[in-house]
Amino acid sequence: MVSPADAERLKRAAAAAAVEEVQDGMVVGLGTGSTAAHVVQLLAPRVAAGLDITAVATSRVTEAAARAAGIRLVAPDELTAIDLCIDGVDEIDPRLRAIKGGGGAMLLEKIVATLARRNIAIADDSKRVERLGGRAVPVEILPAARGLVAAEIVRLGGTAELRLRDGGPWVTDWGHHILDARFPDLADPAVLARALSVIPGALGHGLFLTEIDALYVAASDGVSRQERPIDE
Length: 232
Hints:
By secondary structure, the chain is an alpha/beta fold. It has helices at 4-19, 34-48, 60-68, 106-115, 146-155, 189-197, and strands spanning 27-30, 54-57, 72-73, 82-88, 91-92, 98-99, 116-124, 137-141, 159-162, 164-165, 168-169, 177-182, 202-205, 207-208, 214-219, 222-227. Helices cover 30% and strands 29% of the residues.
C-alpha cells in the first residue's frame, strides 16, 4: 500500500516528466486536482526564469494557483486549438482510455483536452487498471434534470449517487451538480459514453476515451511514458 506521502512524490515525478514537453510560445491547458497541481508548481520557476507560455485553466482552483504562480492566463472561449494539455486521471487502461472528474471539473477538462493538439495524462502507478470501472463515472448535470438522468443511468444498468460537499450537493464552477454513476460491467465504455451523451440534462461525463495521446506514469522504479497506439 502506497503511503500518501509516497503517492504525492510519484505524482510530482510524473508531472515533472510531462512538463519537460512545455516549450516557449505554447498555449498550455492546465488540469484540475492534486496531480495537476504539481504541474502548476513545477511550471512556476520556469516561468519566473523566462519561459513564455499562456495557460488555459480548467477550474477556478487551477486558475487561482496559476495566477499566484505568475502564469499568464487566457479564457478558452475564443480558442480553436491549444498546443498541449496536461492533466491527471482517476483510472486509465492500457489503451489510454480514462475516467476523470474526481475533482469535479471534467466538463471544462474535456473541452480543453479536445482543443489540445497533444493531451498528456499524468499519474502514479495506482491509477493504471486493466479494465475501467473501479471508479465511478462522474456525470455533470443540470440540477433540474437530476431525476431524469439518474433514471436513465439505472436503465443503462448502473446506479447514480448525487455527489455531496459540506452537507449539500457538490456545485461545479458552472453551477451544475454531479451524479457519480457506477456500473458493474464496463466492457464497452464507448457504448456507455454515447448513451450518456444523449441524455437530456446530462452536460458531460468523465469517460475520456479518445482524448489522451500520451501517459506519463510514475512507479517506484521511475517514470515511464506510453503513447497512444497508432491504431486507436
